Amino acid sequence: MPPKQTSSDFLVFHGSVDAEKSSQTPSIILLLGWMDAPLSLLSKYVDGHRSLFPTATIVLVKSHSAFLWTSAAAHERALQPVIDILLDGIYRTAEARPSNGGLLVHALSNAGGIQLMTLAGIIERRLKEKRERWVALSTITMAFVIDSTPGSNEYESIMTTFTISINSPILKGALRLPLTLVYIAYYLINNVLFNNPTLLPLLHRYLEQRRLLPGCDDETPRLYVYSDVDAMVPSASVDRHLSRLLAKKIPFAAEKYIGTQHVSHVRQDSKRYWGAVEEVWGRALRQREGTRPKGKL
């Protein structure tokens, strides 16, 4: 079935009408792309999810560098279609709605992580307004796939983002000055003038929480995928993050690839990649069937 394009930044792929719906399949898969990712590459992830979960609705959210420069109010306006889909499909009580299979979130790179962090804050606020009837949060099945994030050193991350495809060392060096000036302007406007926090440390703190979205509990499974040679998100940054999760006894699984670059791990070993995705969702289902702590906002 062709996707429904709700805007230039969102695509909704509805599940197969021929396949039998099952409560073992997520109702919605939220796929959060890396910055300025081409649709041709993001579509590979859509295809992978479709092969595992043919009846799920896949919501693809693209990310653009302009997101870094806009206000929180602008973020909420931009993400409104996604917020509506999640509220209607996961959180809102509706007697006519089929059994809720749950939500699988797949965040790619720092940009995808930041989009998830932004959505989490908005949805939490909306639920607390209590203007609607919401499902019991303890009934929501969730799992997270966190690929190529969280990174560190925002300045170096931005430099690498905009120069990674350039092979010439001379051209890379020449671009550092204008990019540095742009970064300084961004820092002065975003951090000094508007007193907004630096995004990557904020992303680290967010991912160190036990509950990444309303409806999560202390055991909600997550899968981290990263590599030893990623030029944009060093493995040391992810390793430090995972060590902090261990210290807090926050459960996770990790797949550390050897020799793969940023958001390209699936291309090295797609069977391993999608097998791990299937397993993290399987853990969410097994958790649902057992005794779960009550989900909270």
From TrEMBL:
Signal peptide region: none
A cellular-component GO term for this protein: nuclear membrane
Superkingdom to which the source organism belongs: Eukaryota
Location in or out of the cell: Endomembrane system; Nucleus membrane
Keywords, alphabetical: Membrane, Nucleus, Transmembrane, Transmembrane helix
Membrane topology, record value: Single-pass membrane protein
Name by which UniProt lists this protein: DUF829 domain-containing protein
Species this protein is from: Galerina marginata (strain CBS 339.88)
Lineage: Eukaryota, Fungi, Dikarya, Basidiomycota, Agaricomycotina
